[in-house]
């Protein structure tokens, strides 16, 4: 069976004829296509109450945290220091942080992308640079054109997935990792020192997060990330099924023959 992948929703404002400006819960088809091509079933997960996360994750095999607006600096104990912050939704920050922490408890595979990487870092006590003014900015066509050389740490999970020591990615972000969260390690860095990927230190948790947008590239090392996620999700689902089967066999009562008096 195909693994089911929860993708945290994105948010935007849509102007309609009948309802005026309305908040929209949505997801770019780029994420949907990338997951489907890797063999997974994507499901858009609307943001709700952090307390509902445990029940939600019972229904999924892996999680994707996509790009989106900036994280409220209050989430990592800082005050806003720049007027470049955009798209902040504190309620979404709380929900996605809870999502990450619960997935970590369950050793559920996660792929974080752009904002997703930043959410994962914040979830484990990390902090962010609120603005990287010297970093390449988002220009027309930049999302779909690899242009930013990134070094990959040898022996890392990311290195095993992409199969090379340097990759060329697309750079769309204006924020980045400052202090790395507990239990995480940096596994890719750009020439200007910006953190481009982090992963779980524990080999038992298949978690990778990248600062670039592989869903836009959809080739080579980009598709390898989604292939890794879906394969990890499928393996975890199989292991859980085998565990459930083993437990059910253990509780089957053994019928003993009763001696009949002659």
The whole-number mean of residue pLDDT values reads: 90
Q: Any idea of the CATH class?
A: Alpha Beta
Poorly predicted ranges:
none
Helix content: 25-40%
Report the sheet with the most strands, covering strand number, pairing sense and barrel closure: 9 strands, mixed
The amount of beta strand, in percent, is: 15-25%
According to CATH, the homologous superfamily is Class I glutamine amidotransferase (GATase) domain
Strand order within the widest beta sheet: 4-1-5-6-13-12-11-8-9
Shape verdict: globular
Structural class: alpha/beta
Distance between the termini: 55 Å
Provide the number of structural domains.
1
What's the helix-strand series? Answer: EEEHEHEHEHEEHEEEEEHH
Radius of gyration: 21 Å
Level-2 CATH architecture: 3-Layer(aba) Sandwich
Q: What name does CATH use for the topology?
A: Rossmann fold
Number of strands: 13
Tally of DSSP helical segments = 7
What do these coordinates show?
It is a single chain. Helix content is 30%, strand content 24%. The protein is of the alpha/beta class. It has a single domain, classed as Class I glutamine amidotransferase (GATase) domain (Rossmann fold, 3-Layer(aba) Sandwich), CATH 3.40.50. A nine-stranded mixed sheet has the order 4-1-5-6-13-12-11-8-9, with helices on both faces. It has a two-stranded antiparallel sheet with strand order 2-3. A two-stranded antiparallel ribbon has the order 7-10.
